Amino acid sequence: MRDTIAEHYENLARDYDGNWAHSAEYVEWMNRLIAEALDLRPGDRVADVGGGTGLFERALLPRISPDTPLLCVDPSQHMLDQVPADPRVRTVCAGAEEVAEGRADLPYGELDAVLVKETIHHVPDVAATVGGLARLLAPGGRLLIISLPPKLDYPLFQAALDRFAERHPEIADIAAAMRSSGLDTRIGQHDFAVEVDREHYIRLVQRHKWMSVLFTFTDEELASGAEEMRSRHPEQTLRFTDRFGFVLGRRPE
Ligand SMILES: C[S@@+](CC[C@H](N)C(=O)[O-])C[C@H]1O[C@@H](n2cnc3c(N)ncnc32)[C@H](O)[C@@H]1O
């Protein structure tokens, strides 16, 4: 499974930032929410775990100096290769589990802020990884996990929605793992309204397999999924809501 996921992100890396979901408006909106939630102070030691191409670190960078670079940590070197060169960012090729278990080569013994966005579903044991990340936090440190809920409102074909649901942890379970790791934890939800041309969306599903779950279907299954999407959604413009669970934990001082 790890190899399949690695292969998926290897194929996706070059186009990742140009994905339809990453419209400038969405990226700016999400970046602002992340910066507000993590509330960085100068000198904070920050890691974006599963940070991919670093797209959602941008609003954090004004608070970061090259003396204490932000760590963009990801097991896919292909994703990390897309991170723009910036002296305030250091890439580290490692998985969240390695970070959580203290096996990743990080320049900091503890962290003041950790971001995990749309990545936690890739780890086999969510509670263990959340617990390990929580242990790395300095007093007052924040852990922000952003994840889609298992039940999506996306206009995808049913088998993809079902498989997505099987593979995604409940937001409440992520929060429970944080609480039992000793963090003061709260859950938020942020919604983004999406409008996209139906055929463009179907191309992203069928040809680009832009979500990792789509990579688990054969080309024939995706072709029949595309037909199902057309018959369920005859409208030319698809409108739906992207719902993000924000789970924020803080280590008591
Ligand atoms: C959907 S992308 C999200 C990237 C970035 N956080 C963002 O929101 O743009 C998921 C990322 O998780 C990474 N990933 C896959 N397995 C992982 C693991 N076990 N630990 C950490 N990251 C992982 C992938 O390489 C990919 O970059």
Automatic annotation (TrEMBL):
What keyword terms does UniProt attach to this protein? Methyltransferase, Transferase, Ubiquinone
Q: Which GO terms describe its molecular function?
A: methyltransferase activity
For the keyword Hydrolase, the answer is no
Domain Methyltransferase type residue range list: 48-143
The superkingdom listed in its UniProt entry is: Bacteria
Q: Which Pfam families does the record cross-reference, listed alphabetically? A: Methyltransf_12
Q: Which GO terms describe its biological process?
A: methylation
Q: Which Gene3D superfamilies match?
A: Vaccinia Virus protein VP39
What the entry lists under PANTHER family is as follows: 2-METHOXY-6-POLYPRENYL-1,4-BENZOQUINOL METHYLASE, MITOCHONDRIAL, METHYLTRANSFERASE
This one is known as: Ubiquinone/menaquinone biosynthesis C-methylase UbiE
Organism for this UniProt entry: Spinactinospora alkalitolerans
